[in-house]
Each structure stands twice: as C-alpha cells, then as structure tokens.
Amino acid sequence: MASNRLREHNSSKVVILDTSSIMMIFEFKIDLEDQLKDLLGSYKIYIPNSVKDELIKHLKYGKEKKKKLAKPSLKYIEKYEILPSEGIADDDVIILALKYKGFIVTNDREIRKKAKNKSLKTIYLRSKKRLAIE
C-alpha cells in the first residue's frame, strides 16, 4: 500500500527522516520543509516506524534534553506517512532510502558514512542553520 503511494509521486523526490533530523527542527529552529524545497524542489517525506518508536523511547526514558525535543518531534511527524519497518531505526532509514532511491536527512555521522558507502545522498545540517546535500 505505501509503495503504491510512493510511485504516485514520481516527480517528487523521496526524503527519509531519521530521529536526529526530526529533533534538529526544534533544537536549532530549522524550517525543514522550506529548506528541502530549496534543495530538492518537489519532495515527499516519509518516516520509518522505528524512528517514531525511537522518539517515543526518548520521550519516556531519555535524558532531559532529548525528552524535551521528543515531545514536539512526535507531534510534528503526525503529518507525514509512517512507513512500516522492523529493525533498528538507523538501519531502517538506509533500507528505505535504498528501496525508494531517496535522500536521507540526518545529522548522525554513522548513518552518513553508511549511506555514502551505499551511494545514497544525505542531507545534513551545516553550521546549525542550513541544510546541505552530501
């Protein structure tokens, strides 16, 4: 079902968000949607279910800073489609980006490194204010 909806947006680029990218919106007051539009033009955001689960864990068990960022992050992702995923959030982001030939938005160095090794494009926060493509 989700894959059919992805195919409907052929002209749109697929963007997969990880946990760090969602939380950075609130930590650094980034307008993610406007900056993605500037970088990519038309796009469609998807979030792996495991990323949502990770945000819930941060809300329940995280240190104070992560708890504080998790609450608005969970509210924010309600407007996007959550894709089924079964593994660890970091791995699921890579798997879905490969499956749909999408971009990964992340500030996680390990994910960026893994993505680069798999020839995936990543979008990351540069100088705590602008998104850049790697």
Detail the topology: elements first, then pairings.
Elements: H1 2-8, E1 13-17, H2 19-27, H3 32-40, E2 43-48, H4 49-61, H5 64-76, E3 81-83, H6 89-100, E4 103-105, H7 109-117, E5 122-126, E6 130-133
Parallel strand pairs: 1-2, 1-4, 2-3, 4-5
Antiparallel strand pairs: 5-6
Could you characterize what this model shows?
This protein has one domain (2-133): 5'-nuclease (Rossmann fold, 3-Layer(aba) Sandwich), CATH 3.40.50. It has helices at residues 2-8, 19-27, 32-40, 49-61, 64-76, 89-100, 109-117, and strands at 13-17, 43-48, 81-83, 103-105, 122-126, 130-133. It has 134 residues and is of the alpha/beta class. Strand 4, helix 7 (109-117) and strand 5 (122-126) form a beta-alpha-beta unit. It has a 6-stranded mixed beta sheet with strand order 3-2-1-4-5-6, with helices on both faces. The chain contains 7 helices and 6 strands; from the N terminus they run αβααβααβαβαββ. Helices cover 54% and strands 19% of the residues.
